[in-house]
C-alpha cells in the first residue's frame, strides 16, 4: 500500500498527474460512449463549470447557513414538478443521484405502510426490468422483493404483478422508461394496482424524467406516466442524465408534503443540536445542486426540447440502422433514447455473438454496456452522440461482418464495479 507523500506536492505537479491518470478513461467527448456522460454542448459545460467554481465548497447540510442552497433546491424541485405535471401539493428534494432517489422512495413507502396500515413485513412488487437500485434499497431497508417476469415485449406484466400484491405490499414499481430495453411500463395499471391495497407507487423516471416531457412537446406519443396518473405517489428523475447537469444530482418527488414526511429524518435529542436530514446524506455538496440550477436555467424548456429532438433523431437513426443489418436486432419496441442490440436468431447466415460484436466495436472506440439475458449491448443515446451515428452504423456493419461465427469467452456484464 502506498503512503501519502509526507511533504505534499506543488499544484502543477498534482494536476499534471491527474491529467495523465485519465489517459485510459473512455473518451466521451468524441461522442463514442453510449451512456455515463451526457454532453449538452459547449455553453452547457461553460455554465456548469462556472456554477461549480462558485459552489465548490458550500455545504447544503445546513440550509440556514446557506439559504441560497435552500432556494436552489426549492426552485429545481419546483421546475421538475411542473415538468412532471405535479400540482402545488407535490413536494420533493434533491438527492445525489437516481439510486439515492430510489432509496428515499422505498424507505418512505416502508414507513408509510407501517404507519398507515401497520405493515411489519413490507414487500416491494416490481417487474424484473426495474433498476437494481430497488434491490439495493430492499436489501438495505429490509423489504422482501417480489420480482415478476416481464412480457415478451419487455414491459411489466401487470396481471402477473397483481398476483404478487398482498396486504404486506408497501410499494409497487413501474419505469418510464425502464433501463434495460428502454420500453415504458403501463403506469396507470401499475398505479391502480398499488391503490387497490393502499400501497405506494413509484415511477422510476430516472431516465425519462428529462426526456418524456420534451418528447411530448415535440408531438411524440407518450403514454401517461407522471403525476397526471392517479395513484402515483413518488417519481424519481435524474438531472445528471438527460438533464445534462454534471454528476451528483437527481430529484425525488412525492405527491404531497404529508407523504414526503415519510422520507425525512429529524432528531432533537442529540448533544450536537437539532438534526434534520432530507435524504441519505449528511454533509451535502452544494456543487451539483448549483450546477443543476445553472444548467436548467441556461437551457430552459426550449433548450431541452432541442436536445431531446437531437437525442431522438440519434436514437431513431440507430434503431433503423441496426434493424437494417442482417444478423442483429433491437430488443423491444423502445420509442425513446435507450437501445438494446442483440443477435437476431431469425437472421440468415452464421450467428453474431453480441459480446464479440461489443469487443470489435470497442476496438474502434465505441463503448457500450453489456447485459443479459439475452446477451446484448446497451446504449443510452443522448446529444453526446450527435454527429457520429452515421460513422457508428458504418463501423457496426463492418464489425457484424467481421465477427460472424466468432465468440468471446468473456461473458461478463458490468454495469457498476466496487473497486
Ligand atoms: C440510472 C438509473 C437509475 C439509478 O440512478 P444512478 O444515478 O445511477 O444512481 C435508476 N433507474 C433508472 C431507470 C436509471 O436509468
From TrEMBL:
It is a single-pass membrane protein. The modification N6-(pyridoxal phosphate)lysine is found at residue 241. It comes from the Bacteria. One of its GO terms (cellular component) is membrane. Coiled coil: none annotated. GO terms for biological process: carboxylic acid metabolic process; sphingolipid metabolic process. Belongs to the group II decarboxylase family. Sphingosine-1-phosphate lyase subfamily. This is Putative sphingosine-1-phosphate lyase. It comes from Ilumatobacter coccineus (strain NBRC 103263 / KCTC 29153 / YM16-304).
Amino acid at each position: 500500500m502506498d503512503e501519502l507523500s509526507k511533504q505534499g506536492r506543488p499544484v502543477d505537479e498534482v494536476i499534471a498527474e491527474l491529467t495523465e491518470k485519465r489517459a485510459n478513461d473512455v473518451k466521451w467527448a468524441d461522442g463514442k460512449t453510449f451512456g455515463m456522460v451526457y454532453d449538452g454542448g459547449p455553453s452547457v459545460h461553460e455554465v456548469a463549470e462556472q456554477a461549480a467554481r462558485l459552489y465548490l465548497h458550500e455545504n447544503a447540510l445546513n440550509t440556514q447557513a446557506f439559504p441560497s442552497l435552500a432556494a436552489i433546491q426549492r426552485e429545481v424541485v419546483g421546475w421538475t414538478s411542473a415538468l412532471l405535471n405535479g400540482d402545488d401539493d407535490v413536494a420533493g428534494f434533491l438527492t445525489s443521484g437516481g439510486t439515492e432517489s430510489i432509496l428515499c422512495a422505498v424507505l418512505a413507502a416502508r414507513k408509510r405502510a407501517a404507519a398507515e396500515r401497520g405493515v411489519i413485513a413490507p414487500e416491494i412488487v416490481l417487474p424484473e426490468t426495474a433498476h437494481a437500485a430497488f434491490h439495493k434499497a430492499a436489501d438495505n431497508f429490509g423489504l422482501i422483493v417480489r420480482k415478476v417476469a416481464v412480457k415478451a415485449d419487455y414491459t411489466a406484466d401487470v396481471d402477473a404483478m397483481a398476483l404478487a400484491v398482498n396486504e404486506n405490499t408497501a410499494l409497487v414499481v413501474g419505469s418510464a422508461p425502464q433501463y434495460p430495453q428502454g420500453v415504458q411500463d403501463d403506469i396507470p395499471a401499475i398505479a391502480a394496482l398499488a391503490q387497490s391495497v393502499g400501497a405506494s407507487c413509484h415511477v422510476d423516471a430516472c431516465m425519462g424524467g428529462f426526456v418524456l416531457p420534451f418528447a411530448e412537446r415535440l408531438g411524440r406519443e407518450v403514454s401517461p406516466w407522471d403525476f397526471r396518473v392517479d395513484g402515483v405517489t413518488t417519481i424519481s428523475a435524474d438531472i445528471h442524465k438527460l438533464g445534462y447537469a454534471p454528476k451528483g444530482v437527481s430529484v425525488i418527488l412525492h405527491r404531497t408534503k404529508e407523504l414526503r414526511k415519510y422520507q425525512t429524518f429529524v432528531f432533537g435529542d442529540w448533544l450536537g443540536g437539532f438534526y434534520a436530514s432530507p435524504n441519505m446524506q449528511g454533509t451535502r455538496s452544494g456543487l451539483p445542486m448549483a450546477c443543476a440550477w445553472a444548467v436548467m436555467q441556461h437551457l430552459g424548456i426550449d433548450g431541452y426540447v432541442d436536445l431531446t429532438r437531437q437525442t431522438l433523431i440519434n436514437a431513431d437513426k440507430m434503431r433503423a440502422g441496426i434493424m437494417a443489418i442482417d444478423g442483429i436486432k433491437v430488443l423491444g419496441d423502445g420509442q425513446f433514447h435507450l437501445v438494446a442490440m442483440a443477435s437476431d436468431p431469425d437472421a440468415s447466415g452464421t450467428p453474431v455473438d453480441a459480446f464479440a460484436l461489443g469487443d470489435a466495436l470497442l476496438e474502434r472506440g465505441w463503448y457500450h454496456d453489456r447485459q443479459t439475458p439475452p446477451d446484448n449491448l446497451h446504449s443510452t443515446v443522448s446529444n453526446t452522440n450527435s454527429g457520429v451515428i452515421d460513422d457508428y452504423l458504418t463501423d457496426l456493419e463492418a464489425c457484424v461482418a467481421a465477427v460472424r461465427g466468432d465468440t468471446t469467452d468473456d461473458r461478463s456484464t458490468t454495469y457498476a464495479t466496487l473497486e
